[in-house]
Amino acid sequence: MLHVAPMAAVTDRHFRMLIRCVSPLPTLWSEMTWDTVAIETVDAEALMGFSAAERPVVLQLGGSQPERLARAAALAVSRGYQHINLNCGCPAGTNEWRACYGARLMLDPRLVATPSRWARRRRPSVKCRLGVDGRDSYDGLVEFVRLVSGEGGVRVFIVHARVALLTLNAAANRTVPPLDHERVLRLAAAFPHLTFIINGGVTSLEQAAALIARGVRGAMIGRQSVTEPYLFARSAVLSGGGGAARSRREALDLYLTYASEAQAANWGGGHPVTLARALLAPISGLFHATESGSRWRRAVRAAMQERGRLRDCPIADSGGRAARRPPCGGTAALAARRTVARRGRK
Ligand SMILES: Cc1cc2nc3c(=O)[nH]c(=O)nc-3n(C[C@H](O)[C@H](O)[C@H](O)COP(=O)(O)O)c2cc1C
Prior knowledge:
By secondary structure, the protein is an alpha/beta fold. It has 2 domains: about 1-240, Alpha-Beta Barrel (TIM Barrel), CATH 3.20.20.70; about 250-345. The protein is about 45% helix and about 15% strand. It contains 16 helices and 8 strands. Strands 1-2-3-4-5-6-7-8 form an 8-stranded parallel barrel, surrounded by 5 helices. The protein is globular and about 55 Å long. Flavin mononucleotide binds near residues 90, 199 and 201. Flavin mononucleotide binds near residues 32, 202 and 223.
């Protein structure tokens, strides 16, 4: 029902794990992975590795060549991904067949239908826009879905409720083209046998619930997940379930335990400072909208600048520079930091 959108340079395994520490419910999405890179990488674990606790997790692929996509998808499935997605929404790429990817693929639905066939057995989904400049009518969108589902066998569509303007850069394409949720809802009503997940401008669970109540199967949240990762704490309410949500400090404690293990094992095998920064980055928004949210954010950012400490100390200790003056006057985060730091030194 709830999905955390794929975001390049954001939704790495650490960010996904933070969301998982907040809630077991939302489906997590990888950053887009190029088909070629997935096939040729010498370190598939660094590129596509994920922790079992992250499930359900979707791998998003970028590309357009059926053979390459098929190979990349097979590799992903062999690594344990249950769902594969094709990126048809990024407003980038060239119009040459070999390099074509993202929203440009919407200009020719058969380009999408053909690559989609490779993965029929792999339960592929397509993440697309309402259209692309020059092909952005509602009828064009219907034709896209009809062809990609009919010829390509795709059953799940994630629709970012904006047209992609290929003359604008990616960031502008998330703000300049107007949002049109109604068009996605109309599309979902026109294809009741298919699954639609709405994306774009969803910033609260209440808004997600209202859209789901109007006929889409789920809602995908992107930027607000970064600003406010704790928003997913009440996800159970959306599924009709109750139960107490984890507190921010419980989520932090869980995450710091994970981070300490990742650091001790030097996941990714890169520079320890780089890893430590990557592990700290996801928690900067954890106390958003609390009294001390901005102080926490600044403290995490400051901790990310302390090279020596990042290199030499357990992550919980470095991250704990922020927890040293715990938000909301609590001491639990500090206690968690000390516990985890002790564990990390053993
Ligand atoms: C930093 C950043 C990176 C993104 N990278 C991807 C990507 O790799 N693949 C993709 O399909 N969309 C990507 N997107 C788009 C988001 O998945 C989403 O469609 C968009 O942000 C609109 O949702 P929102 O309004 O909830 O943020 C990215 C967005 C941001 C902000």
